[in-house]
Design brief:
about 120 residues; globular
Length: about 120
């Protein structure tokens, strides 16, 4: 799968819970691209600023039929990937939205706040 990864800001020193949640959200999003948008180019954007980690993973939609390696799941066996990603974001005090993109493809966006210790002088 062609992947374009962009990281803005420093990912070093993130709180462990936010670091793990961000990693797992991107991982599951890319797994979903492989399963549901076979052959589609994907883009992952990670932005770290003073207040939050913002994640965006999107694809352009399937470009070829699904392979035998990752056959589409039957509706009754649908996974819990999107639910799990949303729960991870909420556990960090953040939010996640996912859905179809205008013109085709799919997008996952997550916002994970960074709680900074306040120093008292």
């Amino acid at each position: 799968m062609p992947l374009e990864l962009t990281v803005k800001g420093s990912v070093g020193g993130l709180p462990p819970a936010v670091d793990l949640a961000a990693y797992r959200i991107v991982q599951e999003s890319l797994t979903n691209v492989m399963r549901h948008a076979t052959g589609a180019p994907a883009r992952a954007l990670v932005v770290v600023d003073e207040d939050a980690v913002r994640l965006t993973v999107e694809d352009d939609g399937a470009t070829r039929p699904a392979s035998r390696v990752h056959p589409p799941r039957a509706p009754e066996r649908a996974g819990y990937g999107l639910i799990g990603m949303a729960e991870r974001a909420r556990l960090c005090g953040g939010d996640l939205e996912a859905g179809p993109r205008p013109g085709g493809g799919f997008r996952v966006r997550a916002w994970l706040p960074l709680v900074r210790a306040v120093s008292v002088a």
